[in-house]
Amino acid sequence: MTYTQIAVFAVALAAGLDLYILRTRLLTRKAFWTSYAIILPFQLLTNWWLTSRNIVMYERTQIMGARLASAPLEDIAFGFALILGVLTLWVFWGRRGFTQKNPK
């Protein structure tokens, strides 16, 4: 399985979790897209720093080849899936009152 395939699968899984399984519907909310717009520049900066210094490298046969801020586009998709997945779980558990108790 290539990194491209994994990234596409991750986005589909996160979107399915959000829209159909947990039904948090973050993808339909302006607040989510605003949050993502704030997060994205930091992701691009981090990706640029890691890939331009060859700290993280990708096998050319495993990616599409297109890059943004010196990182493969798949990184943007994978990062999007991670952010959506975490926020979906956060909202889902928050609605159900799942909080960590403060032991005293």
What does this entry look like structurally?
This protein has 104 residues and is mainly α. The chain has a domain at 37-94. The chain contains three helices and two strands; from the N terminus they run ααββα. It has helices at residues 3-21, 30-52, 73-95, and strands spanning 67-68, 71-72. It has a two-stranded antiparallel ribbon with strand order 1-2. Helix 2 (30-52) crosses helix 3. The longest helix has 23 residues, at 30-52.
Describe this structure in a few short sentences.
The chain is mostly helical.
Q: How many helical elements? A: 3
Principal-axes shape call: elongated
Strand content: under 5%
Q: How do the helices and strands follow one another from N- to C-terminus?
A: HHEEH
Mean pLDDT: 91
Per DSSP E runs of 2 or more residues, the count of β-strands stands at 2
Characterize the largest beta sheet: strand count, sense, and whether it forms a barrel.
2 strands, antiparallel
The strand line-up of the biggest sheet is: 1-2
Q: Structural class given helices, strands, pairing?
A: mainly alpha
Q: Termini separation (Å)?
A: 48 Å
> Low-confidence runs (pLDDT<50, min 5 residues)?
none
Helical content stands at: 55-70%
Write down the Rg.
16 Å
